[in-house]
Structures are given as C-alpha cells and as structure tokens.
Amino acid sequence: MYRRQIEPSHDLPHACQRFLDDVRVWAYEAIDRYADEPATDVHDQGTYTTGWEPLLRAGADERILRFLQQARDRMRDHYTRTQQWRHGYWRMQEAHHGTEHYELFLGALQRILPDDRETARQLDDAAEHMGNWSTGAPDWFDWGRRRFHSLFFGADGLRQEPGMALNSPDHLRCLNICLLAASNPETETVKKRYIELATVYAGEWADAILAGDALPIALTPDGILYEFSDDDKALYYSFMGEAPDLQAEVDRAENLLGSDAINTFLRLWRESGEPRFRLAAERLLEPLAAQLDDADAGAAADAVRAYRRWTGDGRYDKAVLEAVARLDPFDITEVTLDTEFKRPARRASGVGKRSDAPRWLEDGRERRHNPITLAVAAEIEGDSALQARAVDLARTYFLLARAAFPDGRDHGCSARSVSAIARGHGRENHAGMTTAVLGPALALQLEADADAHRDYRG
Q1: How far is Cα of residue 71 from the mean position of the Cα atoms in its chain?
Q2: What distance in Å separates the CA atoms of residue 242 and residue 347, rounded to the nearest whole number?
Q3: Lowest CB count within 10 Å: 73, 144, 185, 209, which one?
Q4: Mean of the per-residue pLDDT values of the chain
C-alpha cells in the first residue's frame, strides 16, 4: 500500500507548475538511468517517454530533446542490426503491437519537434508500406477490396493462414501512422496518397459502424463481422489478451477507442468534409459517454473532449456534468495505491479496464473520482478551481506511481508503470494524468494568457 495526502494548490498556475516540476524530475532521473543503456528488443520501449509531451510543449528542454532523439536513433539502429526491422519496419508483426513504436513514440516526438526530418523519415519509412508504395516489401493493402490482406504483416510479407484476412480495429493504427507521415511529407503527392489511404480505409469502418444496430467487431475481405467464430476468437486473443470479450456494445466501442478511432474519424471529417466520419464518431460516443460515472473511464471523458475540440459541439457536455455532479472532489484528503490487489485474469467489461490494473482508494474507500473526468467538466464549466483540483489529484496519482512502479521502458502497455499513469495504459492510449489533465490545463492557461495580452494591447 502506498498512501499520499493531496496537497492543495493556491490556484491553477500553481498546480500546473508543481506538476510540471515533478514531471521534469522524472524525465531527468530516467535520462540518468538510460542515457548510457543500449536499446533492447522490447517493441514499445520508447512509449514511457510520451508522458513527457506536456512538459516539452510547455517549453523546450534541450537535455530531454537530445535524449529522445538519441533514443530514437539507437532503437532504429538496434532493430535494424538485429534484423528485427527491414526497410524501416518490423519483418513480421501484428497490427496492434507492431504499430506502437511509430504511432506512439515517433508520433509524440513529431508533435514536439515537427520539423525534425529524421523523425519524418522514419515515419515515412513505415507509412509507405501501408498502401504498397514501397518496392521493398510485398503488398499489405488490397485497394480493390479496401482491406488489409492480413492481421500479421511486415517487410518479409504476410501471414495467410486461415483467419488472417480479418481486419480488426487495430488496423486503424496503420492509418494513424499515415496521417502522422502526412504532417511532414517530402512532397505534396506523398501527403495526398497518405490521406487518400486513410480516407478510403477509415471510410470502410465508418460505413460498417453506421450499417446496422450492432457495432462491428471486424471487417472481412467482403463484408462486416459481428460475431467471432471460435477459431477467429482464439486467433485474435492470442495477441490481444487485454481486449474485452466484445459482446457488450460498450466493449466494441472501447476496442475502437483503444486504436484512437474517434480522433481518426474526426480528423478525416475535418479533412474530407464527409459526414459519415463524424456520424461514426458519434455512434461510438453513445455507449462510451454512458460510462462516465465509472471512475476508471477517464478515457471516455477524454474522447468527449476530443469531440468538443474537433467539432465545437457540446452535445455530450451534460453527460460529463451529470457524472461529476454526484461527486465531491474537494472532500478527498488522501489517495491510496494498492499494488497487492489482484484482479481476475479476464479483464472486466467497460472503459479503462485491464487485468493488471492496480486499485485506487480515496480516504480508504473505493475511488469515485477520475481526474480526467473532473478536468473535462472543469473545461466545460470554465471552473478554474475544479481544474486546479483535477491537476492536484492527477499529480497525487503520478507521485504514487513514481513511488511504486518502474518507468515502463520494459512494457509500454502495462497498467503498472509510471508511464501507464502519466500517459495511460494500453487500453487508454494517451488518456493519462500528464497527457489528459496537465496538458489540457496548460493549454487553457496559454489561451487565457493570450487573451489577456490581446485585451491589454486593445
């Protein structure tokens, strides 16, 4: 058991500054640990650093940036030298884990340093395979059927045994890599082809989501899949052990959320103007928003925030505010992290669930508050006191994780790491205490400062 008193801040700037200072200490200590360490065979060994993104967006730190660039190139050289990569991508991997290094680590690095050509080159090296634009590997995508050929693919080819032709939500991660590569392309032609692939393939998923009363679990070469066969189920869970059982509607939506489908659809809605992408995002948000009173479901609140940001539409605001209205975040004095608590081997239904998730207590009782949900409610209401409280609570979670867990370099998906609390575990995917509480609070501060500056200048 690890316990910590919540330390109230004077105001939102004070809350943010204390949390930023703590994140910088973590980053510096991690650099001291790993600066001279060689890269390993772990496929997502860089993911833990993505929790530093809000710190680096708040202001450049040359020591951290040099470390990230060095780590990027050490991983590239190690994977290439050990023949795990060929032509810039894994020789063979499945769609979920094989994409993580590119979408998560390189994606965060590109957002921090958008003009870094080496990051852009490595993203392009992966993205060019997605739509068969590289002569260095067999084709991965069937443009006629608008499907990926296999769940497993790489620079050495495809796995084609029975069941491999299924397209799962994890294939959307391939599009996210293309969209990252399109942000800093070598030419306008390259940008257009990446966006075309993303629009074509995501359109298939959007149409499937809108096609019937039930949400799909996969696409087949010629249609939509609503129920796994026993063989297909065994194949999928052989590498997706933390996926839900996909019977409840919320779990089907959660499996798409885990591959960032809502942000992907809404970006493509903005890019293309096609209503189906926004409608698909809304269809997923219906069951997700119903989970907001679950203290584990911070990722659902973050999805509502994404919808508000992309569309300017507050249709889900009431659900957030109703979930928070039943709470009293200013009444909590202490948070406990129970690392000895054991969950069932099969993860529970819902959002934010993992079988390895620790247990959180508030004043000795089961937690009721999620800092992300509180932060989104504060943004909706323009409540700076609640925003500061959300940041203070998030900081408490973070500091408890620092006391109890490793950084996450050896397993980026795990729920028991500092990274999992900072940037979210593998089912939350960027909805963590630094990325979805501290980062948005800092962005609001910058907006407020800019508004004040404009008012001052008249």
Answers
A1: 20
A2: 7
A3: 144
A4: 95
